[in-house]
Each structure stands twice: as structure tokens, then as C-alpha cells.
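Record type: ASSEMBLY
Status: queued
Input:
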Amino acid sequence: MKFSGTDNYVATQDLMLAVNAAITLKRPLLVKGEPGTGKTMLAEEVAQSLGMPLLQWHVKSTTKAQQGLYEYDAVSRLRDSQMSDLDGGERVKNIENYIVKGVLWQAFTATEPVALLIDEIDKADIEFPNDLLRELDRMEFYCYETRELIKAQTRPLVFITSNNEKELPDAFLRRCFFHYIKFPEADTMRQIIDVHFPNLKKNLLAAALKTFYDVRGLPGLKKKPSTSELLDWLKLLVAEDIPLAALQTQDDKVAVPPLVGALLKNEQDVTLFEKLVFMQSRNR
Amino acid sequence: MLIDFFYTLRSAKLPVSVKEYLTLLEALQANVVGPNSDASSMDDFYHLSRMILVKDEKHFDKFDKAFGAYFKGVEMLTDFTADVPLEWLKKTLENELTPEQKAAIEKMGWDELMETLKKRLEEQKERHQGGNKWIGTGGTSPFGNGGYNPQGIRIGGKGGNKSAIKVWEQRAYQDYDDAVELGTRNIKVALRRLRRFAREGAEEEFDLDNTIRSTAANAGYLDIKMRPERHNHVKVLLLMDVGGTMDEHVARVEELFSAVKGEFKHLEFFYFHNCVYDFLWKNNRRRFAEKFDTWDVIRKYNKDHKLIFVGDATMSPYEILQPGGSVEYNNEEAGAEWLQRLTHAYPKFAWINPEPLGVWQYRQSISIIQQMVSNRMFPLTLKGLEDAMRMLSK
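Status: finished
Output:
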């Protein structure tokens, strides 16, 4: 099994190496990077290109590690026990009927190899990664209610993404491989755009890319536009059939590009940007 | 195999464990990189070892340096975490140059000059193997006697080699190191740390979901559960030193704290100059017109406020210790008195100092203040901020 990018995902050499090392050694791969650089996409694309089903676990601030393993639905059982004349109380007697399997349980008991995505692990509580140490290292856990050991038949390919909002504990990090997706350089970006917009005119692309990197290069932006924003913006430009001339200015100065709302996502940034453009045109 | 490499990384203060080292060997054995796989270049080995051994982008820069040093066949004997800052070097050179030489440099461009300087330094090193303390350059060079840091560290980045610059020599992750001062990128991370600080220490509230669950698990007998409230109660009183070289840093800190203002219950700013005396002010332009009596401030904000000073603590010792020592007016009581009064009024306090940690020991006033704030002075770096916040929330 080797991953080498897909038709709609451009992977750099070091990213491919990271994924392949994770596949070969069956270790979880922790992926970090600016928002919008394709961390979540990576898991989807790898799973697709290797023909594995992808199980996803999107972590929120309220998510507990236990929810990924299993949950014991005590409330249903209590209710059923009080109305035990339903089926003669057979269902209530067996606790297994009230165990709700989580994503990890599903991944471990799957008969074919699967990919598992734990998305935005940094959103959860600080203890969350610590509670998953053994599960990710040995790929097994114990279900206390039914007294059975759930062990992975084939180790799933685990992707973990983080946006760096919390620091992850060392013990957890030691068990993972780590890859930091850097913001793509202009060359890689061109490849990415080729994949998404094969019919985009060369000169329009060049003008759009220049504008994009100019905007990104502005000091003081709260949220710099990233790859996904660039792709959205290009989609809009193509859909609205914006002429090339609208992106270019005569004297190589930054102007407010059309549909700037797709690139800058908060009003402070837009105002700052307009102010800069205004000051520049005044200095002419 | 690669044991020296492992110890090189350890001595560069990278948190590498034996387990990770063994994993690297395992990966090599499994032919992830190597002559029998698709990935066989040095870059591939660099990427592989980095992804296995380093788990945070803030360590990437240290790793790049250590990797470069090891694979150049250099035993690392010195502390690689110290570095000669380029800015400092520029300044030192500027001081030593005559105007004509400066003009010549302008023509040459700083970058080129730095390259030449680096090359010169490398040559010097080769000639003076053994004596690794000082590098004296020849008389006619435009660099003068630019002796540099006696710790024996090469100036960051090598350059000047005939080959192209290698990946680890680009030092692309320099900004991500957590020991450098706050810049535009890591200010975001700092913000998150402050936010976390703001959220800690909440009170408890009734947890309905958990109560239902545990009551059910308890076979129907009531079992009440509580959980920490999500609000925050942190109140912050920020006193900042303005004037002169401090302004830029202070503006940064102010931005930082105002950005998380919504997260704090209260956040108050006041300014002072060099040391706190009878008066503080809120608006720097009208500092003489709109003054706030320090006594009033102490009375108005009660002692659950966390007091944070931001200042370089660099001044004449008289300004702290002598009545009338202030540079602005004749203060009746010494700055030290006021400092003591404030630190007594607010048991939770910290002093954030934007000056680099390295120079603290050479400034008398810094060590006086350090003593007065019972060693709760932290540098303005990510780590410093984090330590300060941890100390404050204890």
C-alpha cells in the first residue's frame, strides 16, 4: 500500500513520505497546519485512494474519550426495566443490548482494514488525548460492562488533525508521527489549482495568484486567506465570468479585487485592506 | 546506529525519547526510506526523522540546526539553543564602522555583507581550530574586529557553500520557536494561552445530563452531579511602562490583552513611566491632565484582581530606591514603596519584561525589581507568558 496523491489532492513529497511511513509502521499520524491547508481532506483522500472505508470522529469541546469507545445507555435500560412487561424482560437482562458502540469500537472490529479520522483533537478537553493513549498505542480497550476485551484485528490507519488550540501531552505525541502542513509555495499552489480548475486561463490564474499572495502578504490581517479560500474565490471568479482586466491594475499596485469577501472573512480585515489600498492610491 | 545523532538532538534540548529513536530505526528497517525504496535522498531521511522525532513545529528550528550540525560531521559540544541574533550583529557592526565603510556597505547590500561575513568566519574557524573562543579578523577587512559570542556558536545558517542550500538550512521554522519573542505568528498562540487562563478557575453548576445518567446507572436513586461553570471570573489589572524603547512592546502586549478582553470579567489598563509612583494614567497623550491617584486605584480594584506589570525595568536604581528619584517630578516616596504597596494589595501578581532574558543579569535595576516582585518576572515570549499565566492562576 502506497499513497502518492490523488486526482484532486496534491501531496508534497514530504507529506507522501509521512503518510507512507504511517501506513508501513501502523502508527497514528498527527497532522497540523494553518486552517484550510487540507488536513481533513488528507484522510478522506488517502482512504479513497487506498480503497478503505473512512470512519470519522469529529471532536467538539464536549466530546469525551469514552464516547469514541462505547457508551452505556443506562437511561434506556432503566426505562425498559420499569416497563419490563414489553418482552418478558428478556432485553433488560442482557447489558450488551444497552452498549452503544463508538467509532473506535467499529474501527477495531471491522474485518477489512479501515482508515479512522479523529478531527480537531485540540477542541476537546485537555485530558482527552491522555484517555486514548492505550487505545491508540495497543489498539485495544476493555469494556467493563460486558467484561470483554476489544482488540483490533487489523490496525486501522489513524489520522489525527489539530489546529493547535491546545498543547497535546507528550505521552500522546510520542505515540504518533507528526507532520506539519506548511502553507503551499507558489509552485505547489499552481499544481493544486490545475487539479481543481484544469480549464482556467493561464493569464487569469497568474493575475489571481498574484493578487492572492499580495493579500496574504499584507501585515496585520487577522485571518490570512488559505488554500480553501483561494479555491472558493477562483470558483466564484469563473462562475461570475470576471474579466481579466478587473484583476489587473496599470501600475502594479494592489487594488480591491472583485469578490474580496471570499478571501477575507471578517470585517476588520476588509476595512484594513481597503484602508491600505486607499492610502496607496493617495500616495501615487 | 545513529546513536550520536540521537544524542546530538538531545543536547540541542529537543525532547526526544528512546521510544521515538527506536521507531526511527524500525522505519529504516522497514525501508520507508533508503536505497531500496522510492524515497532515497537525504531530504527524505530528514523529513522522516523529523516526523518521527519532533512532535511540535516549535521545535523544528532547533531540529534543523542540530540536523545540519550532525550531518556536517560536527560534534556538538556547545549549547545550540543559544544563537547570535542577526540584528545584534548588524548593530555591533554599525557601531564599529566608519562612515565611508558604511557607504561601501550600502552599495554592497546587507545580505551580501552577511554572506561574506559568514564565509569569513568559517575560514577563520578552520584556521583557528582549537582556540574556539574568539575570532579576530584581519586588519583590512571591512568588518573590523567583530569578535562574536564567546560561546563558540556558528552564526545562524551557513550559506556561502558552493552547493545549494539544503532544506534544513533554510531554517523555515525559525518563527515557530517558543523561546523567541512574540511576533505576528506566535501572537495567535499566545492569545489562546491567555484565553485558557481566562477560562480557568470557574465555579460549579448543576449538571443535568450527568445527573440523569448517573441516576439511571444508580438504578433510579437520585445522584446529583455538578460541573465547573463555563464563565470566567478572572479580573486583570494591567500596569504598563510607556515611553522610549518600550512603546512598541507595550503596544503589542496591550493588543494581546485587549484581544482577549471579552474573556476576562474585568480588564483595566494603566500606564506608568519607568516605575510606579503616586499617579497612573490611562491616556498617554493627556498624561499630565488626566491622572489617577495610585491609592484610588488600589482602593477601587479589590484584591481578586491579578496584577500584571509590563515593563523593561531598566532605569537608574535611584528611580526605584530614592524619594525624589523620578525623572518626571519630585516624588515624595520612593518607587520601591509603591511597588511594595501594590504587590501587597494584590497577592496575585507578575511582571512581564520584554527585554531578552539574557541581558537581565547585567542590569542593576532589573535585579532590584526582580527581588521586589519576588522573582516573578517573566520574559515576553510564549513560554514566559505561559509560565506567568500558570503562576497567576495557581
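Annotation: Strands of chain A lie at 29-33, 54-58, 70-72, 99-101, 115-119, 140-143, 148-151, 157-162, 177-181.
Annotation: The mean pLDDT of chain A is 84.
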